[in-house]
Amino acid sequence: MQLLVVGATGETGRQLVEQALQQGHYVTAFVRDPAKLPSQHPNLVVVTGDVLKPDTLLTAVRRQDAVLCALGSRPGQQSQAVTEGTKNLIRAMQQVGVRRLLVVSSLGVGTSYEEAPLLSKLIIKTLLSGSIAEKEIQEQAIRDSKLDWVIVRPPRLTNGPATGHLRIGEHLPFSAFTLPRISRADVAAFLLDQLDNDTYLHKAVTITAR
Question: Are 102 and 149 in contact (CB under 8 A)?
Fold first, then answer.
């Protein structure tokens, strides 16, 4: 497939790029700073742009089969890239007719907050409150888009290897004092599995390591 990865220089974005290339896809990495993506591959094209500048997005979205979005902000910092950038991305996709949108969100967004363990709720309400608020806006824009979307809500992300041993569901039970986690590699692998799989179409699912 022809895939666009938005947020390609983040740690999860880099996993998406690397794994997609390993699977034989043609990848366009959309980045603000190409120096932050040292990967080189004959099937990789790096496009410099800004999600807050719709014209640059429109160029990148054209002729893609699917878009993978790993936009995020650092704890304690707010960024319009997640909210307005996602809205710009959706408009670009609608304009050129690209339908498939796969998005990394976060545990704590929507109904997943009530299902999160107590320790996670404390972190969400303190360190991650700004980031979660941005993700709420992002998810609503995606739901309203009428695109073919899948949203994944991981808990704490690690840099461990992909294991394939996952718990996945729209509603996952947790014990109160656990602190769930999952590797970025597993998140990327799960999203790439959704490229031609409609099991979770139009769903926001929580995903954690077993």
Answer: yes
